[in-house]
Amino acid sequence: MTFTLLGLAVLFVDLCTGADLDVAEDPPWNGKVFATVVNEMNPNLDWCEVIDRLDDVQMLVTRRQSLITLIDALKTGLRDKPFPINKLYTKWRCREAQLSLISSMIENPDVFCIADYPHRAVPISVLKNTPDDSDRLLAPWCCVELTELLLAMAGEQNVQTTAIRLLHGALEKWPDVVLLALFQVPPPMTELRQKFIEMVLPVFIIHHTNAVSVLNAIWNSEVLPRATVHNMIINAFLTFHSKAPDDQQRLARILDIANELKPGGLAELFSCPHVPFIVEMGLLASKRDYLKLDKWLEDKFAELGDPLVDNVLAQLQRRLFVPATSQSLSPETFSIMMTFLRNHSTKLSPLAKQKFIVLTEKLKEIQQQQVGSVRF
Description:
The chain is mainly alpha-helical.
């Protein structure tokens, strides 16, 4: 008696999905015994082709015991041959069957862990605080192929919900590892992948201890175009800042991280098109002695022109008369900003010019009051 591949696959479906079998009451199928018997009856059977036959609408692995039975049978059937791991990542005709198997493996890495087989590794060695190597639930997410597969499935209607749920769950638990993986997946940069990154990066910047090490690794990624990666990180900084534009701690966090992005992180941050943000960053950077404010303002004026002058005035107005806080201007910074505005006052818009006149008159008034109080 011999088994055809199709006949064996149909039997496999019944075996592994538990059709007409109450696993809670009946003893589970023994996959090892099943495969041993099949090999004895058909020693030339190609079990790699059997795996191909699992691409079937009925083949939904929804229970742990089903996965155990399936893996026991496949490993026993393959004997000394390596498990054809790549077959898990190629596109199946029945994506529901493929995702059910992958999902079950993710949830039960003690039964079958894809990280135990050849894969493109997520570079977790770059992390300042490395994750627990013994965490088997994390292990599958250290395989770039898994993230790549789920990203593809997340764009397909029939399996979209489950694929996105799996990615979301991993991002909540291990955002540093999954972010690294998202930037290790080769082009194209799909809209869905970009949305995932844009959703996670701003939150990751403020909260995670591995923010600097992850962003530095991403900044120097050789998988995606550098310009694309750098723009995404700069945009994440802008998004993060826009949530609380008056929060100086956020601004300081951005500056600290950008200064750690080598090469050129700080320079690219100052080259972004959002002028109000640039001026704020420049003021903070000068406070940290990262740059000479007077020279930086003149260099930026040569690059940006009139909008810079208007925004320097806006910052001066906003900060000048506030109580002593982290936003207050030092006398030196105030002097540099006023000198810059006087030198370029002809470049101010009509409205800004009027504001500058009002500001200077108010400063004169305050100065006269101070002189009068001293005389008294």
